[in-house]
Design a protein that fits this description.
Layout: H1 3-56, E1 69-75, E2 82-90, E3 93-106, E4 109-118, H2 120-155, H3 157-168, H4 185-235, H5 237-271, E5 279-282, H6 283-293, H7 295-300, E6 304-309, E7 313-316, H8 318-334, E8 341-346, E9 350-356, H9 364-367, H10 385-396, E10 399-405, E11 408-414
Parallel strand pairs: 6-8
Antiparallel strand pairs: 1-4, 2-3, 3-4, 5-7, 8-9, 9-11, 10-11
């Protein structure tokens, strides 16, 4: 849930509760005020009756109107005055009325005097006030919601822009980023911190890239010298007879290190955008050529190959296309089982390579991770083959995905 949505929900809920409680209190207050005013009017009528009796020794003549009704009843003894609400007949209809009831001694007798005033007009006025109040509350709530939405969206725009910059930022693609300036101190501070952090990360990544490039370049000559000297030693019959195992082991380690060096150097070149993808490359021809090169290894493992290959030419780099296809096919063969199966499908939209394997399913994130090797893997490797494939696809604008279906490992490349 977004911060604005959560804030808005809490704000609206609290506002509604406050307005509802306020409306109830307002209703009770207005009702009390009107009732008090009505009681004051009834009290005035009472005082007029008592004043008339004191002056004339009798009760005044009853003149009932639509706004007032007075009734005299004889009682045996006097009593204390009180107020009450009752239905009283005014002309032809009965209405809910407010009454004051008090006793008067006149002409040697006790009388109960009941003065009534209708509550209908008071209730009608109260209803109008309540309706107007509710409408005002609704108007205030609606206005507050839309104002908050407009204002908060504008206020939080620099924050969402910063999130978008972080989301789109790709270190290995040397992304350029711009952070929106605002007149809010906290967001400016956030932007400055993000800008500084990204610049430091970019500088560190650039330094690491340069180190990798320099190290890979400087390693070429020593590795070539070591390999040449080892091969010369193997040609010496005396040395070969006494130290065959040790020299062969060292030579294998040097070859492995050479392959690792070549892979790192290739990754560095791709990340530094030293390749262009402008030439038309026939992917079908590269696949067939690679299958011919790997024919002995395929036959040794008794692997069945099934292919549905259409002539496809894409904007690519021929060297990188050769590496991409080679790495996919090498992995499909090396980690396959004896008597296994490989299926290759190629059309103008995608390349799909699927194969059986003794390896279990892997996650889409881990399988392309640099230096990742499955714990079940028996063959030697540096864990860079599929990482190079993914990086080549990204540089060329392709999409590669991995999945595991019914014992088969699938690699999809969408052109």
């Amino acid at each position: 849930m977004k911060l604005f949505t959560k804030y808005n929900r809490i704000n609206v809920a609290v506002t509604i509760v406050i307005f509802l409680l306020g409306s109830c209190l307002f209703y009770l207050l207005v009702h009390y005020i009107f009732l008090h005013q009505l009681d004051e009017a009834l009290k005035t009528e009472q005082q007029e009756v008592l004043a008339f009796e004191q002056k004339h020794g009798k009760l005044p003549e009853v003149i009932n109107t639509p706004d007032e009704n007075t009734v005299y009843d004889r009682v045996s003894r006097p009593f204390n005055e009180y107020y009450c609400n009752r239905f009283v007949k005014y002309e032809k209809e009965k209405e809910w009325s407010r009454q004051i009831v008090f006793s008067v001694f006149a002409n040697g007798m006790n009388y109960k005097v009941t003065v009534s005033k209708p509550l209908e007009e008071t209730e009608d006025l109260l209803q109008v006030i309540i309706v107007v109040t509710v409408l005002l509350i609704a108007l205030i709530l609606g206005s507050a919601y839309f104002i908050n939405r407009a204002v908060l969206n504008r206020l939080w725009r620099p924050f969402y822009n910063a999130l978008d910059v972080l989301r789109r930022f790709k270190l290995d693609q040397k992304s350029k980023f711009t952070l929106e300036q605002s007149n809010i101190e906290e967001f400016d501070q956030l932007n400055n911190d993000i800008r500084g952090a990204l610049q430091r990360v970019q500088a560190d990544f650039e330094s690491l890239n340069q180190f990798t490039a320099y190290a890979a370049h400087e390693m070429q000559t020593p590795l070539a010298v070591i390999r040449a000297r080892l091969e010369l030693l193997l040609q010496d019959e005396t040395v070969f007879r006494n130290h065959t195992v040790q020299i062969t082991s060292v030579l294998q380690a040097v070859r492995k290190l050479t392959k690792l060096h070549q892979s790192l150097l290739l990754l560095n070149k791709i990340e530094n955008e030293q390749f262009t993808f402008t030439e038309k490359v026939r992917i079908d021809k590269i696949i067939n050529h690679k299958l011919s090169e790997l024919e002995d290894l395929i036959n040794a493992k008794e692997i069945s190959i099934e292919k549905q290959i259409q002539p496809v030419a894409v904007n690519f780099h021929v060297y990188l296309a050769d590496i991409l296809v080679g790495n996919l096919l090498n992995n499909a063969i090396r980690y396959n089982v004896k008597g296994g199966f490989i299926n290759i499908q190629l059309n103008e939209n995608e390349l799909v390579v699927s194969n059986t394997s003794y390896l279990n399913a892997m996650t889409n994130e881990r399988v392309f991770q640099r230096f990742f090797r499955s714990p079940e893997a028996k063959e030697e490797g540096n864990g860079l083959g599929l990482a190079i494939v993914k990086r080549i696809c990204e540089a060329a604008g392709f999409t590669i995905t991995y999945t595991y279906i019914k014992g088969m490992h699938f690699f999809w490349i969408a052109f």
